[in-house]
Amino acid sequence: MENHVFKNNWKSDTPKIVRGKGIYLYDKDGKGYIDGSSGSISSSLAHGRVDMAETLRKQAETLAYVTRLTSITPLYEEVSSVLADNTHMDRFFLTSGGSEAVEVATKIALSYQRYREKPNKTKILSRWLSYHGCTSHTMSIGGNVARRSDYISQLTEDGHIAPPLCYHCWFGKERNSCNCECAEALETEILMHGPENIAGFIFETIGGSTTGAATPPLEYYKKIREICDKYDVLVIADEIMCGYGRTGKMLALEHYGIKPDIVVLAKSMGGGYFPVGAVGTTEEVAAPIKAHGSFMGGYTWGSNPIACATVIQTTKIIHSENLLENVTNMGALLKSGLEDLMKKHPTLGDVRGIGLMVCTEFVKDKNTRESFDPEVNFTGKFINNAREEGLLLNAGSKYNKGIRGDGALIGPCFEVSKEEIEIIVDRVDKALSNTEKEVL
Question: Nearest to residue 183, comparing CAs of 209, 216, 208, 213?
């Protein structure tokens, strides 16, 4: 049969996956692959769960779709309560996914400022090497140089600051022996644009594919919160990838003792079974918009009943099966196992992350942290070798100033077992050995 798919990558012959069970995916020839990155760090639950399938089936039979423009379903109210209980935010606006949620979050931020009679506060600051979505607006907010380059004519520029990527610190500092200059850079950026013009600052709490699970020092977000409060700037946490249990907490910011003004969720909250995203706000942020009476935003499939039912069931499973504890324990085991590989492999320069969101970064020289030339295609070779070993991983690249850098994100579903973690580490070991034979 002729292939009519418009691919993301025509250079890679990816397997044709036909079914999944547990942490495994199977191609049309019956070969099994460990879903080592939960797709794109999306599937929080294992594949092939009958209870999840039954949830979708029952809801489709009862009520599949209504638009929130004409009605609010009891399910929408229920899922909002579930999200409030689990994230400690107050108001929720559901979308079909992460990019939509980021757009809604920024519109809420601007509406909040406008209805407080601060109409000049229209800029949303962010960080270089961040990723917040693939629409023109979310790419403008994002700081992924490679992904922005082809569409630069469509993008706007509100302002970006250095990322908290300690392995490649832009200020030449070492972790835990600095003053978090990367956080202090926010104050400078606010002052350069004028505090009266800044509506919010958005960030990935734990870095995604373009900083490879970058995990800032504990004091980083305390400084960010202080600076934002000082200049009346909203704190907007993008937890699309790292949120809803992926780090062992329902929000990754819980590790830092900080509460955002707005939080953006997607991926794990749907378990991997249905596309869904959400924006959560504090009551303080919602209040002026509520007083105004309306908010112009939203998308056709946002808050559809099937998505609501999926989030409710996913949340029940996370708690009833103690999956947050498993994420913490298995994440520590995964990180420890990968760190052990650093003693063996000359190219494994860094292992970072938290919970089941871990990055392996590959370098040419461990002592200098020098990255491979892009022409070497180390990541591509490693991903291909991992696939040959029966391990599918999410590639990462250009961590080093957006120009160079190789790595992979590893984050299996929340239900992964000790034995499966050991298999993942073993397959990473073999794939890396084969890649080093090709490159070194």
Answer: 216
Buried/exposed code over 264-288 (b: 16+ C-beta within 10 A; e: otherwise) = bbbbbbbbbbbbbbbbbbbeebbbb
Cα separation values, 438 from 269, 343, 384, Å: 39, 20, 12
Q: Give the Cα separation of 153 and 430 in Å (integer).
A: 43
The tokens describing 161, both together, are: 């600051």
Sequence letter at residue 285: V
34 close to 424: Cβ distance less than 8 angstroms: yes
- Note the pLDDT of residue 176: 87
Domains of the chain: 17-48+322-439 (3.90.1150.10), 63-320 (3.40.640.10)
H helices present in 42-122, as ranges: 50-62, 74-87, 98-114
- Tokens in use for 195? 């505090």
Please count the other Cβ atoms lying within 10 Å of the Cβ belonging to residue 188: 12
In single-letter form, the type of residue at position 261 comes to: D
Residue type at 426 in one-letter notation: D
What are the residues facing 34 on neighbouring strands? Answer: 24, 391
Is residue 12's pLDDT more than 80? no
107: number of CA atoms within 13 Å, CB side?
Answer: 16
What percent helix, strand, coil does the chain show, rounded to 5?
A: 40, 20, 40
Residues 6+ apart with CB under 8 A from 196: 118, 120, 121
pLDDT tens digits, residue range 179-206?
A: 999 999 999 999 999 999 999 999 999 9
Q: What is the pLDDT of residues 19-55, one digit of tens each?
A: 999 999 999 999 999 999 999 999 999 999 999 999 9
Written as one letter, the residue type at 315 is T
Question: Do 301 and 73 touch, CB atoms closer than 8 A?
Answer: no
The string of pLDDT tens digits covering residues 354-392 is: 999 999 999 999 999 999 999 999 999 999 999 999 999
User: Which has more confidence, 349 or 137?
Assistant: 349
Tens digits of per-residue pLDDT, 292-324?
Answer: 999 988 889 999 999 999 999 999 999 999 999
Residues 358, 208: Cα–Cα separation, whole Å: 10
Looking at residue 297, what is its pLDDT? 84
Q: Please choose, from the candidates 303, 286, 306, 304, the residue with its C-alpha nearest in 3D space to the C-alpha of residue 295.
A: 286
**SS3 state at 182:** helix
User: Coil, strand or helix: which one is 281?
Assistant: strand
What is the rounded CA–CA span in Å between residue 2 and residue 106?
Answer: 42
Q: Look up residue 178 and give its amino acid.
A: C
Give every CB contact of residue 341 below 8 A, 6+ residues apart in sequence. Answer: 348, 351, 425, 428, 429, 432
